[in-house]
Design a protein that fits this description.
Vcp-like ATPase, Chain A, domain 2, alpha/beta, Rossmann fold, binds S-adenosylmethionine, flat, 7-stranded mixed sheet, 4-stranded antiparallel sheet, 346 residues, 3 domains
């Protein structure tokens, strides 16, 4: 099969994605006579051969969908031989390295080839990826996968320690990507691999100390526009928020107690790690007072009949109710820092 040349029906030898749910997918290679066990019972490969990609296939106790693989689906389902880059970071890398059809890219280490698949998709049909891995079995496995996925002609896998022996490439690459424990050792050789007309480089490191050392080395080697970023997925809860209409009369505002400290504390509490009920209060236009109101929701998302009230204790008849996205107080999901730099022509 070929990841990049779509065909309509499942054939023997194809790598397909079995979709049982967002959190339940499997990548399998179709072999005549083979059987794959799912939570809905046994799935015979023979029953999938010839079906149209995207169609529903029935198992003894349920059904699933057969999907054509994309780099994103492959990243979510590939066999892990190492830590991998996920689609969130990959999207930033692809953009910042300016990957496009025809680009030549150098990468190390190959690892589980999660990023490699995405790079190849971006540089097709006339670009090339040179990927380097010093672990022999990982290099071999990646090569086999590229062959199975019909990508061999776009990638060269080399089994090599790039920190010790370098890439042995000169004036060929538009971009270099490093996912190595000691990236600074590979930087002089990476610089040599970049085209004389210049190019972009990226180094992925989980720790800030590695980032600092990489940045210092990039600077010494004459790279410019050095910048480090972290890309995190931010989830939002959809909430129904009920704001009382503000009171603008001076008389009312004088009579209002201005215990804002208490309200600020309440704000902070709602921003607590639990995060579920975090709703920022709106500051009213002419007073120090803040007022906000969150209607409770049941599991199905319906608004429950909670009486409307504000923090200064008055019942309010005229309210403004709206839906809003509320971000959680904390954003877990650190994988690493991406350091980018540009090499300009001399
Ligand atoms: C975290 S993995 C890379 C994962 C890859 N980016 C992916 O998305 O699947 C790092 C890889 O670098 C390889 N490696 C470490 N030092 C190396 C070196 N000096 N030369 C070549 N490969 C190296 C390791 O064997 C490992 O497979």
């Amino acid at each position: 099969m070929s990841f990049h040349k779509y065909h309509e029906k499942v054939q023997e030898g194809d790598t397909v994605i079995l979709y049982l749910g967002y959190e339940n997918m499997h990548a399998i290679q179709i072999k005549r006579g083979a059987v794959f066990q799912t939570k809905y019972g046994a799935l015979k490969h023979n029953d999938i051969i010839g079906t149209i990609y995207g169609s529903r296939v029935h198992c003894p106790k349920g059904y699933l969908y057969v999907l054509y693989p994309t780099p994103e689906l492959w990243t979510s389902n590939l066999p892990h031989r190492t830590q991998i880059l996920y689609s969130t970071d990959i999207s930033v890398v692809s953009l910042q390295l300016d990957l496009k059809p025809g680009a030549v890219v150098v990468e190390s280490g190959t690892g589980s080839a999660s990023l490699s698949h995405a790079i190849i998709r971006s540089i097709l049909p006339d670009g090339h990826l040179y990927t380097f891995e010093f672990h022999k079995e990982r290099a071999q496995k990646a090569e086999e996968e590229f062959k199975d996925h019909g990508l061999s002609e776009y990638v060269t896998v080399t089994h090599k320690d790039v920190c010790q022996f370098g890439f042995d490439l000169e004036d060929v690459a538009d971009a270099v990507f490093l996912d190595l424990p000691v990236p600074w050792d590979a930087l002089p050789s990476a610089k040599k691999a970049l085209k004389k007309q210049g190019g972009r480089i990226c180094s992925f490191s989980p720790c800030i100390e590695q980032v600092q050392k990489t940045c210092a080395c990039l600077d010494e080697l004459g790279f410019e526009e050095i910048s480090t970023m972290e890309c995190l997925v931010r989830n939002y809860d959809v909430r129904t928020i009920n704001l009382p209409n503000p009171e603008f009369s001076k008389e009312k505002s004088k009579s209002q107690p201005t215990d804002t400290r208490k309200m600020e504390q309440e704000d902070m509490d709602t921003d607590s790690p639990k995060g579920d009920d975090s709703v920022k209060c709106e500051e009213s236009a002419d007073t120090n007072s803040k007022a906000c109101d969150v209607k409770d929701k049941n599991q199905s998302g319906d608004v429950l009949d909670v009486p409307s009230w504000d923090y200064i204790g008055r019942k309010s008849d005229a309210n403004f109710t709206f839906k809003s996205g509320i971000s959680l107080g904390r954003m877990p999901g650190h994988t690493g820092y991406l350091t980018f730099a540009t090499l300009y022509p001399l």
